[in-house]
């Protein structure tokens, strides 16, 4: 409501700011947060456009509100003894919200008024407030000016608590990308802060020689395991961004950062013999190990960092180390499912960066395959699922060289995928189907001909159809339909005779998919039908899809061309009818699931537009069953009495009132259920029913309308 | 208090604790790793093993072709396998009063200790420990007796010969103490000395100490022990586990407030997480079966196998292994599977509650019912007619030196389709496989050791806070192969006391108190006087009566009215009737008040000197010194007895008489 200037003015003039400020410190987070939003909105909305045009009334109101708010903030910014820090946190959030969008006079005014309190807060170094305080600082900060925020920032970047320091540096780096060039000193400091823990733990000289004071501070951190771990995780989360910094700012080569993350992963898995180079670590090796060996949190963060570091400059010089550690994690029996999944993800990311896979030794390839093979039989379904997904993703990595250089040859992985089709867990089956679809081109090398498929491949297709017919879970069935979509779209023109395995299977998929109970399977089936439409009408000039305007006129030139294609259109249409596409669309049209009906409707409209005005297609007819959707369609065509099995396609398309139907279907169900009209109808109908039930008690009618 | 360490093996301990007047043996584990130096005992004649060349020194000086055989570059003793016994010379075994057994793996040396050594004590163990221990011993005896070996190799053990031998044989220690397996008669005799106890049951040993077993969570009936007197508590922690497997969970809280905690039986595989290994086991098993190969799992007939079967029960359907037969072959297979189902009270809560449904607590019953799991006493008989491949075989012994596993190694070793999966952590798998090399079959090592790891144990110790910890020396340094893993060792303050084989440790704590009972009538006669708020003292005259380590104060018997005729003879036996004991004094002499009192009594010239212990009062006129110290007052005056008495009486005025 307060978007309206008059309402806003009313709100302010009626003195509602005071209760709003009280609500701002409400113990309920929801209330406090809503109050924050509202306060920020009011302050920002009534700030004068600029000084010349400000009218006096608004100006006084504005300064009153600003003063009131500033006082409130000042009062509750620094937590007093015995009060909870939650209040200060909310105030900081409010301040960040305002400063983020405030223009010059307001911004300066606020900062001037609050400078002392903010500095006090920064000096007190409350750990839990660091992120919120950094938000405020960064919202008000600009590197050019030497105002209070710059002072605050430099004090935050020099706090004596490494955990807070890391948080502050991360927040600064995260939000400072816009002003990177002009604020080199602070950025350099932040990068240093974020690299120090890695330097300390892994022993890689990321910072050259770190001063012993830093080492001492880090050693002190080891006393609290959870803070140490979260500090390492924050650093890891930011390493990808740090590695992208220009060389002038970065104290080492980006590849060195990659190597240090690799070493950290090694330490995490208990294999730390390589980190002996560190002299700083010697004294507190035990504590470091005790903290991070087998620590899932660090492993996950490090793997995520490693995945993102694949895009850092010069990263491919670390291929050997990265590939080795990732393969190690994939085959390590102690890796938990999430760690494993992240290793897979990182591996896929890196393989797409490596231009030449020949550096990966035969031994490593074998280890990789052994690991993957083992994981495909793992008792935990999550592991099997991510393994199968990984195999699918590896297929998608573009291989720049011949197929031989692929990391895992098709010959090895195909049996694993086929085995996974029979997995007891539906997610795994679905992933296996998708993986088979992804590895399509190499798996069915000559899919066009269909007849030349090997026995194994034919078997696989049979198994997929079986999944579509028999599987109890929707995921797997959906994946099967998508598999055939991939196959179909990879063939430029599937030959219709002799009937290939592909076309035969597609026919089965269409008929089974349209009868499925899962609406997403049905939508996918319709998408498959759409592919067939594309293929059938691809030669036809008028088929450019739904974007064609229905009333567009054709030039005589185009008309002449079209006539020549009429015969082809006729045969395309009849082949679509033969393939069962038309039946699928008609059955979809009367489907009770709205997205299915909408999709079918759109496709039918497309056919209608394509064949519009073509005389030759009048003779094409299709069969309508006497039950189910056939009956429904008949009802719509109003020829219920006519028991003839076949109807003309053109006639059906023109008399189904498809456009009206599309309009209706494209309105979301909310439109019907949540409209005022519907609410009113509910009330009225309830009133009528109740009123009828007891006419005397008509006054007692209470309608509960949420 | 002393601890004698008879075994150097950290997970197969054998220690003797001398505590108060008792001698308590804690476990008697049998180190079977010595059998790895011997050739396997094949169940059916193996042409390969019988054709192995004999070994003789290259320079021809030594010829032991009959005793030693060479296989794939290693030398093995061709004789009945022998075991490394606990040290028997350090201590006279006949003096041992009791043996406490913590789990069935730690009692395999029992017959060597209790038989033919003069042992007359009692062995305490829980019922499952006894029954399953009996099964394991029986199995061992059968494995050995089934394939008797005529010759016994001894020449190689001679010191001057042994040092010339190659490889691990040269470095084997105490080979002269190695012994062949015992027989059934010894087993039965040893086990007849076992007395059963239940968890938390308190057993008095000669009135001196009380022992009590606590659940340790490692295996069926496994226990830690508390040995305590009225004022001291020693905890013995052996093979314990905090994981949720089949046994009752570990009782940690009762270990609190120990003066000494003897810590043994930590995991042998600190870097292998049991969950990960179980997953690895299942994956490799499924992979092999899918490829048409067989899986061989060398294992003990009780313990982890129950968990493996339970895990497979859930896994076989999801991995489409429903039709693959699982065979469990052991002379005691049937008893082991059946026994596990009847020890309901020793199982974890989850399994206990199943019994009330009623359902068998372990799902292997269902596997047997549905014919997926079949068990046989040996490969002879029914097994040969039922045998179908590909299959999974669980059989012993995990050392691969005896038992039915030897046959399967010979049968399946040549095909790379087959896999052997090691799950028992007791033996190095490479050493176990050595006499079968070259081997084509795949080997997978996934040792499942559920015992406490270093992380868990440091947490446990932080919680129970013992004053002193005693442990094998292996736990005080990182494992040899991973010297950088300083997290894989015990780091405690104060540092733990480490022991090795043959160590004798004097445990660093002194017994300071002993409980003495007092009879009610004597208690009645006491007159306590308070010397400090809350502390009262009283003197007591009584006769101390000690019997069975129980001490009681009895009233002094009055001399019987002796008949006058025999008076002379009884003189010696009469209790000495002394004078009433002098009263004890307590309190302190306050300086100022004392000076005032002296003044009142006419002693005016007093020079007070302050010393480290108190004060010296110099009565100059009388030439007398009074030393006032915290625990004594001395009056030094020469030849002036009246003055001394006066001064004494003045001092006594400030003191309290008890």
Automatic annotation (TrEMBL), chain A:
Keyword presence, Thylakoid: no
Keywords: Cytoplasm
Name of the protein in its database record: BRCA1-associated ATM activator 1
N-terminal signal peptide: none
Compartments (UniProt record): Cytoplasm
Record family assignment: Belongs to the BRAT1 family.
InterPro entries: ARM-like (IPR011989), ARM-type_fold (IPR016024), BRAT1 (IPR038904)
GO biological process, one term: DNA damage response
UniProtKB/TrEMBL annotation, chain B:
Keyword Nucleus: yes
GO biological process terms on file: negative regulation of transmembrane receptor protein serine/threonine kinase signaling pathway; regulation of cellular response to growth factor stimulus; RNA polymerase II transcription initiation surveillance; snRNA 3'-end processing
Subcellular location per the Swiss-Prot or TrEMBL entry: Cytoplasm; Nucleus
Region described as Disordered: spans on this chain: 551-579
Pfam family, one: IntS9_C
Nucleus as UniProt keyword: yes
The name this protein goes by in its record: Integrator complex subunit 9
Family statement drawn from the similarity comment of this UniProt entry: Belongs to the metallo-beta-lactamase superfamily. RNA-metabolizing metallo-beta-lactamase-like family. INTS9 subfamily.
Species annotation: Hippocampus comes (Tiger tail seahorse)
PANTHER family in the cross-refs: INTEGRATOR COMPLEX SUBUNIT 9
Keywords: Cytoplasm, Nucleus
Domain of life where this protein originates: Eukaryota
Domain Beta-Casp: 305-433
InterPro entries: Beta_Casp, Integrator_9su, IntS9-like_C, Metallo-B-lactamas, RibonucZ/Hydroxyglut_hydro
Main subcellular location: cytoplasm
One term under GO cellular component: integrator complex
């Amino acid at each position: 409501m307060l978007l309206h200037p008059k309402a806003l003015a009313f709100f302010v003039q009626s003195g509602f700011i005071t209760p709003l400020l009280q609500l701002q410190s409400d113990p309920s987070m929801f209330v406090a947060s809503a109050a924050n939003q509202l306060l920020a909105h009011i302050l920002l909305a009534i700030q004068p456009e600029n000084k010349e045009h400000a009218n006096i009334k608004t100006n006084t109101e504005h300064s009153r509100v600003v003063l009131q708010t500033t006082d409130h903030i000042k009062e509750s910014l620094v937590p007093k003894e015995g009060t909870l820090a939650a209040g200060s946190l909310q105030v900081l959030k409010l301040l960040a919200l305002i400063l983020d969008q405030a223009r010059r006079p307001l911004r300066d005014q606020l900062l001037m008024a609050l400078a002392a309190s903010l500095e006090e807060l920064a000096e007190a170094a409350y750990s839990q407030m660091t992120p919120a305080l950094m938000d405020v600082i960064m919202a008000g900060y600009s590197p050019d000016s030497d105002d209070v925020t710059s002072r605050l920032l430099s004090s935050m970047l020099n706090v004596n608590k490494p955990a807070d320091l890391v948080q502050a540096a991360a927040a600064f780096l995260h939000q400072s990308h816009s002003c990177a060039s002009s604020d080199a000193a602070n950025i350099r400091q932040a990068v240093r802060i974020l690299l120090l823990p890695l330097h300390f733990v892994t022993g890689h000289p990321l910072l050259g020689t770190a001063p012993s004071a830093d080492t001492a501070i880090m050693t002190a951190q080891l006393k609290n395991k959870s803070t140490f771990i979260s500090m390492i995780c924050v650093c890891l989360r930011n390493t990808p961004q740090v590695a992208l910094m220009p060389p002038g700012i970065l104290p080492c080569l980006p590849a060195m950062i990659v190597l240090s993350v690799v070493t950290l992963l090694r330490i995490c898995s208990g294999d730390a013999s390589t980190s002996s180079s560190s002299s700083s670590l010697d004294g507190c090796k035990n504590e470091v190990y005790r903290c991070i060996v087998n620590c899932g949190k660090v492993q996950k963060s490090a793997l995520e960092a490693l995945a993102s570091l694949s895009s850092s400059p010069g990263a491919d010089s670390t291929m050997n180390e990265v590939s080795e550690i990732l393969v190690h994690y994939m085959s390590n029996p102690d890796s938990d499912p999430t760690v494993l999944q992240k290793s897979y993800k990182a591996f896929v990311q890196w393989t797409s960066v490596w231009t030449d896979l020949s550096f990966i030794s035969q031994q490593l390839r074998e280890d990789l395959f052994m690991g993957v093979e083992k994981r495909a039989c793992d008792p935990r379904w999550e592991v099997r699922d991510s393994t199968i997904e990984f195999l699918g993703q590896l297929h998608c990595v573009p291989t720049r060289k011949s197929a031989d250089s692929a990391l895992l040859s098709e010959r090895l992985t195909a049996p694993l995928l086929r085995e996974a089709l029979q997995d007891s867990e539906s997610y795994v089956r679905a992933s296996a189907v998708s993986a088979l679809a992804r590895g399509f081109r190499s798996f069915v090398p000559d899919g066009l001909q269909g007849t030349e498929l090997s026995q194994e491949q034919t078997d696989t297709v049979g198994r997929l159809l079986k999944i579509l017919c028999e599987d109890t879970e929707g995921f797997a069935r959906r994946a099967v339909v998508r598999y055939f979509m991939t196959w179909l779209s990879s063939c430029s023109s599937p030959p219709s005779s002799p009937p290939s395995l592909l076309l035969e299977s597609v026919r089965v998929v269409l008929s089974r998919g349209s009868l499925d109970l899962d609406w997403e399977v049905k939508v996918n089936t319709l998408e498959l039908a759409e592919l067939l439409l594309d293929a059938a009408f691809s030669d036809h000039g008028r088929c450019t899809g739904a974007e064609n305007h229905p009333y567009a006129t054709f030039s005589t030139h185009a008309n002449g061309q079209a006539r020549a294609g009429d015969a082809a259109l006729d045969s395309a249409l009849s082949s679509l009818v033969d393939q069962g596409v038309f039946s699928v669309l008609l059955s979809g049209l009367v489907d009770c699931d709205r997205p299915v009906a909408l999709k079918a409707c759109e496709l039918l409209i497309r056919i209608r537009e394509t064949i519009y005005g073509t005389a030759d297609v009048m003779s094409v007819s299709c069969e309508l069953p006497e039950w189910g959707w056939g009956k429904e369609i008949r009802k719509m065509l109003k020829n219920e009495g006519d028991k003839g099995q076949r109807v003309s396609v053109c006639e059906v398309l023109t008399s189904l009132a498809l456009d009206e139907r599309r309009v209706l279907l494209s309105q979301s169900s909310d439109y019907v259920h949540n409209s005022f009209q519907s609410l009113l109808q509910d009330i009225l109908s309830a009133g009528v029913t109740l009123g009828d039930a007891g006419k005397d008690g008509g006054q007692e009618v209470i309608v509960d309308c949420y | 208090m002393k601890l004698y360490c008879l075994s150097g093996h950290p997970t197969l301990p054998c220690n003797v604790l001398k505590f108060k007047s008792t001698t308590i043996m804690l476990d008697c584990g049998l180190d079977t790793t010595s059998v790895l130096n011997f050739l396997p005992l094949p169940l059916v004649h193996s042409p390969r093993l019988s054709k192995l060349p004999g070994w003789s020194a290259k320079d021809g000086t030594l010829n032991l072709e009959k005793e030693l055989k060479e296989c794939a570059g290693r030398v093995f003793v061709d004789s009945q396998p022998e075991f490394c016994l606990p040290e028997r010379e350090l201590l006279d075994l006949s003096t041992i009063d009791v043996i406490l057994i913590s789990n069935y793996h730690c009692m395999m040396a029992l017959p060597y200790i209790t038989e033919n050594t003069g042992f007359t004590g009692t062995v305490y163990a829980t019922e499952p420990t006894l029954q399953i221990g009996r099964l394991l011993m029986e199995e061992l005896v059968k494995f050995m007796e089934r394939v008797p070996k005529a010759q016994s190799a001894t020449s190689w053990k001679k010191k001057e010969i042994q040092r010339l031998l190659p490889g691990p044989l040269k470095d084997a220690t105490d080979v002269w103490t190695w012994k062949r397996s015992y027989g059934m008669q010894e087993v039965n005799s040893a086990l007849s000395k076992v007395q059963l106890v239940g968890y938390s049951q308190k057993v008095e040993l000669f009135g001196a100490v009380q022992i009590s077993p606590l659940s340790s969570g490692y295996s069926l009936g496994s226990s830690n022990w508390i040995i305590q007197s009225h004022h001291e508590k020693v905890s013995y922690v052996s093979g314990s586990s905090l994981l949720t497997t089949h046994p009752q969970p570990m009782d940690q809280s009762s270990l609190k407030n120990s003066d000494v905690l003897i810590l043994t039986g930590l995991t042998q595989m600190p870097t292998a997480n049991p969950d990960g290994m179980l997953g690895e086991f299942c994956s490799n098993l499924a992979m092999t079966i899918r490829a048409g190969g067989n899986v061989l799992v060398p294992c003990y007939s009780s313990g982890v196998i129950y968990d493996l079967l339970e895990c497979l029960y859930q896994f076989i359907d999801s991995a489409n292994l429903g039709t693959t037969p699982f065979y469990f072959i052991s002379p005691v297979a049937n008893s082991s599977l059946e026994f596990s189902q009847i020890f309901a009270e020793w199982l974890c809560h989850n399994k206990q509650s199943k019994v009330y449904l009623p359902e068998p607590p372990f799902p292997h019953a269902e596997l047997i019912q549905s014919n997926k799991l079949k068990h046989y006493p040996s490969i002879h008989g029914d097994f040969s007619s039922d045998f179908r491949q590909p299959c999974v075989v669980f059989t012993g012994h995990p050392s691969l030196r005896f038992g039915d596993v030897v046959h399967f190694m010979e049968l399946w070793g040549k095909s790379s389709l087959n896999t052997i999966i090691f799950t028992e952590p007791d033996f190095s798998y490479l050493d176990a496989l050595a006499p079968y090399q070259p081997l084509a079959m795949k080997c997978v090592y996934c040792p499942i050791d559920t015992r406490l790891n270093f992380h868990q144990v440091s947490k446990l110790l932080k919680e129970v806070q013992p004053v002193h910890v005693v442990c094998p020396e292996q736990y005080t340094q990182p494992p040899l192969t991973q010297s950088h893993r300083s997290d894989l060792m015990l780091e405690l303050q104060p540092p733990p006391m480490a022991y090795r084989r043959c160590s004798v440790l004097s445990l660093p704590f002194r017994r300071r108190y002993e409980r003495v009972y007092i009879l009610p009538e004597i208690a009645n006669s006491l007159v306590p006087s308070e010397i400090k708020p809350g502390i009262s003292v009283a003197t007591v005259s009584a006769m101390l009566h000690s019997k069975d380590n129980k001490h009681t104060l009895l009233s002094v018997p009055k001399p019987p009215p002796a008949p006058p005729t025999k008076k002379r003879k009884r003189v010696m036996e009469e209790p000495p009737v002394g004078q009433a004991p002098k009263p004890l004094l307590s309190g302190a002499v306050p300086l100022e008040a004392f000076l005032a009192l002296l003044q009142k009594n006419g002693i005016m010239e007093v020079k007070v000197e302050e010393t480290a212990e108190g004060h010296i009062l110099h009565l100059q006129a009388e030439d007398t010194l009074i030393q006032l110290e915290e625990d004594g007052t001395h009056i030094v005056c020469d030849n002036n007895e009246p003055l001394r008495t006066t001064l004494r009486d003045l001092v006594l005025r400030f003191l309290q008489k008890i």
